[in-house]
Write a structure and sequence with these properties.
Layout (H helix, E strand, L loop, with lengths): L14 E7 L5 E9 L5 E9 L4 E7 L4 E6 L5 E6 L2 E6 L6 E4 L16 E7 L6 E7 L5 E6 L2 E7 L2 E6 L9 E5 L5 E6 L8 E4 L3 E5 L3 E6 L34 H4 L6 E5 H11 L9 E3 L15 H4 L21 E6 L3 E6 L3 E6 L4 E7 L4 E6 L5 E6 L4 E11 L5 E6 L1 E3 L17 H5 L5 E3 L1 E2 L2 E6 L7 E5 L2 E6 L2 E2 L3 E2 L3 E6 L2 E5 L1 H6 L9 E4 L4 H4 L3 H6 L10
Antiparallel strand pairs: 1-2, 2-3, 3-4, 5-6, 6-7, 8-9, 9-10, 10-11, 12-13, 13-14, 14-15, 16-17, 17-18, 18-19, 19-20, 21-22, 22-23, 23-24, 25-26, 26-27, 27-28, 27-31, 29-30, 32-33, 33-34, 34-35, 34-36, 37-38, 38-39
C-alpha cells in the first residue's frame, strides 16, 4: 500500500526487537533496547497512538524483550524477557470527563453522587463518534453524534468538544455543551492550530498544539456565560453557534474579541522573551488577541516542526536536532480558576495568571510532564511524567539557589516516617538534594512511581488520591494511607470520599453502562472490597483518610 505522506517516528531505540499494533489498531507498541542517561542499555516498550504521538514508556528488567503480544481487548500486553513472561496492564487514554459534581458535603456513602459522566466511543456501524451524557443522580442518558471528535474536557457545569478538521477550511472548532449535550456556544480555533492538548475550568477553555495555547474565557466571575455578538471575524473565523442565542444579551458588547475573551499564547516566544528580559515580566508581549494572531503555517513561513509532527521526538530526552525548538514542544496543560500551567518537552513549566494571561513563574522539572494538576487553592502543582513518576511543586515557597538568586517554587518534601518515608514508600529513594535541604535530614522528596492517574481533594489542599498500577493511595497531609485494589479512573475527591469510574467496563458496553461501574465510598465499605473477588472487581477504589 502506497502512502504519499507517511509519518516517521524517532523512537531513540538503538535495537528494535518488536513492533505490534493492538487489536483495534489504535496503539502501537515498540520494544527494544535504549540507552539511558548514564549510557546503560535499558529494555523499554514505547507506546504511540495512530497519529504517531507518543503516549508512554514502560521500562522492563532483564536482558531484552524477545517477544510481545497484545491481549484481545487491548488492555494487557505480554512480554517475553529471558526465561520469564511479564504482563503489563494498559490504561487507555479514553475520551471522557466528569462535571457538575455537587459539593463534597452532599455526597452519599456507597452511591454515585450527582454530576454528569461524559464519554465518547465509536459504534461499529458508524464513522462518527457517539458522545454519552450520563446523569449519575437520575441515571438518565443522552447521546449525541459528533463528526471528527478530537478531544473533550469538562469544567464547572459544562463540557467542551473539540472537532475537526473542517472539510473546507481545514480548521478546528471547540463547542461548549451543557449536562444534556445541548450546544451552548462554539468558537473556531485559529487556522493552523492542530489540537493536541485540551483542558478546562469553570471559566476558561484551553486548547494547545505543540507551540500555541488558545484561551477562551467563556464565563465571567458573575457566573454568566459570555456570548460573542461581535459577528466573528479575525483569523480564526470565530462566531457563536445557533445554540448561543439564549445566552444573556446584556454582556455581549464586552464579550467579543475586543475585550480579549479569546487569546493565543506563544510559549516559545514567552520563553525567549523571559530569558532576554532577565525576568518573567518581559514575556507578556507573547500573548495576542485572535484578530492579531496568524499561525506560522498560515503566514508563509513554513511548517513548524514541533507543532505539525507531535510524535517526532516523543519520549526522547535532551533532543535538540532542530536547534532546540523541539525541546519547547508543549507536552501537557493544567489549569485552575487562578492560573494556567504549560509543560514543555525540556521539562520547563510556565505558569500564567488568569484571567489576564500573564507569565508570572517559570521552573524546570527533571523530566517532561505528561500530567499537570493544581490543588484546590492553586498553591501546589502535581506533575507526572511519561514514566509514571509523580512529584509535587510548592508554587509559593521560596529558596536561594546556587547563584544567590531567590527562586519561587520548590519541590515538596515530607517528614520521613518510620517505614522509610512520608510518601508511602512509593519514591525511588533517590530524591532531590535541593528539596531535602528545606526540611533537613528528617525529610525526603515527595515522589511516587508507576502513577497513571491522580486527583486533588476539592476541599483539602494537601490531600490527594493516586492510582499506581492496580492500587489506589489516598494521601492525608501528603502522607499515604493503606492502599486498596482498584482499576478505576479517578473522577472526584471531596470530603472523605473518592469517586472513580471503571472505564474499562463502561467501554465494554458503552450503550448500556451500569450504576455499579461508578461508586462512592469510605472506609465503611472496606468489607465489600475484602469480600468476594467479584465485588473487588466491581467496586471502584475507595478509602477514608480520616480514620479514627
Amino acid at each position: 500500500m502506497d502512502d504519499a505522506d507517511p509519518l516517521v517516528i524517532e523512537t531513540k531505540i538503538e535495537i528494535l526487537t518488536q513492533c505490534k499494533w493492538d487489536s483495534k489498531g489504535s496503539v502501537l507498541a515498540v520494544a527494544g533496547l535504549r540507552l539511558s542517561g548514564d549510557g546503560k542499555e535499558v529494555s523499554v516498550v514505547q507506546f504511540y497512538d495512530a497519529h504517531g504521538s507518543y503516549l508512554r514508556t514502560l521500562k522492563v528488567p532483564g536482558g531484552g524483550i524477545k517477544a510481545l503480544s497484545w491481549e484481545g481487548g487491548g488492555l494487557r500486553v505480554a512480554l517475553a524477557v529471558d526465561a520469564y513472561i511479564y504482563f503489563a496492564n494498559i490504561r487507555p487514554d479514553y475520551k471522557w470527563a466528569y462535571f457538575g459534581a455537587p459539593p463534597p458535603a452532599s455526597l452519599t456513602v456507597g452511591q454515585p453522587s450527582g454530576g454528569t459522566l461524559c464519554y465518547a466511543y465509536t459504534r461499529p456501524d458508524r464513522v462518527e463518534s457517539t458522545v454519552m451524557f450520563w446523569d449519575l443522580a437520575t441515571d438518565e442518558r443522552v447521546t449525541a453524534t459528533v463528526s471528527g471528535l478530537r478531544a473533550l474536557a469538562a469544567g464547572g457545569d459544562n463540557c467542551a468538544l473539540v472537532t475537526g478538521p473542517d472539510v473546507v477550511t481545514g480548521g478546528f472548532r471547540v463547542q461548549l455543551c451543557n449536562a444534556i449535550g445541548a450546544p451552548v456556544d462554539s468558537k473556531a480555533l485559529p487556522l493552523g492550530l492542530i489540537p493536541a492538548h485540551v483542558t478546562m475550568t469553570k471559566f476558561h477553555v484551553f486548547v494547545a498544539d505543540g507551540r500555541f495555547v488558545y484561551v477562551w474565557q467563556y464565563r465571567t466571575q458573575s457566573k454568566k456565560l459570555v456570548a460573542d455578538t461581535s459577528g466573528g471575524g479575525g483569523s480564526g473565523g470565530s462566531g457563536s453557534s445557533g445554540g448561543a442565542g439564549s445566552l444573556p444579551s446584556g454582556i455581549g458588547g464586552m464579550a467579543g474579541r475586543v475585550a480579549a475573551r479569546e487569546r493565543v499564547v506563544d510559549v516559545w516566544e514567552c520563553d525567549k522573551a523571559e530569558q532576554a528580559a532577565g525576568g518573567v515580566g518581559g514575556a507578556v508581549t507573547s500573548v495576542q488577541t485572535m484578530d492579531a494572531f496568524v499561525h506560522p503555517s498560515r503566514a508563509g513561513k513554513g511548517a513548524v516542526k514541533a507543532t505539525l509532527f507531535p510524535g517526532r521526538a516523543a519520549g526522547a530526552e535532551g533532543d535538540g536536532e532542530d536547534g532546540g525548538s523541539g525541546s519547547l514542544k508543549i507536552m501537557a496543560l493544567g489549569a485552575s480558576e487562578k492560573g494556567l500551567v504549560v509543560g514543555l518537552e525540556s521539562g520547563t513549566v510556565q505558569r500564567f495568571s488568569l484571567p489576564l494571561v500573564q507569565l508570572e513563574q517559570r521552573f524546570v522539572l527533571r523530566q517532561a510532564p505528561a500530567l499537570l494538576r493544581f490543588n484546590c487553592d492553586s498553591t501546589l502543582l502535581a506533575h507526572v511524567d511519561a514514566n509514571g513518576q509523580l512529584g509535587i511543586m510548592d508554587l509559593e515557597k521560596k529558596k536561594v539557589d546556587e547563584h544567590g538568586d531567590v527562586v519561587v517554587g520548590v519541590p515538596v518534601c515530607v517528614p520521613r516516617g518510620p517505614d522509610g518515608g512520608g510518601s508511602g514508600g512509593g519514591g525511588d529513594g533517590g530524591g532531590d538534594d535541593e528539596g531535602k535541604e528545606d526540611v533537613g535530614a528528617g525529610g525526603e522528596l515527595f515522589e511516587r512511581k508507576d502513577c497513571w492517574d491522580m486527583i486533588w481533594s476539592a476541599d483539602h489542599p494537601r490531600s490527594l488520591a493516586t492510582m499506581e498500577k492496580t492500587r489506589m493511595f489516598v494521601f492525608e497531609d501528603l502522607v499515604a494511607t493503606e492502599p486498596t485494589l482498584s482499576s478505576g479512573y479517578l473522577a472526584a475527591f471531596g470530603g472523605s470520599e473518592v469517586q472513580a469510574v471503571l472505564l474499562d467496563d463502561v467501554y465494554a458496553s458503552p450503550d448500556r453502562p451500569l450504576r455499579d461501574m461508578v461508586r462512592i465510598g469510605t472506609s465503611g465499605t472496606r468489607a465489600i472490597v475484602d469480600g468476594s473477588p467479584a465485588c473487588t472487581r466491581q467496586c471502584f477504589a475507595f478509602f477514608c483518610p480520616r480514620q479514627t
